[in-house]
Amino acid sequence: MDVAGFLLFLGASARLTRLVTRDEILTPLRERAGNGWLGFFLVCPYCVGLWLTAATAAAYYFAPPQWFFWPALVLTGNLIWGVAQEILDTAVELHRERTTALAPPPAAPRGRGARHVHREP
Question: Side-chain half-sphere of 37: how many Cα atoms within 13 Å?
Answer without folding.
Answer: 0
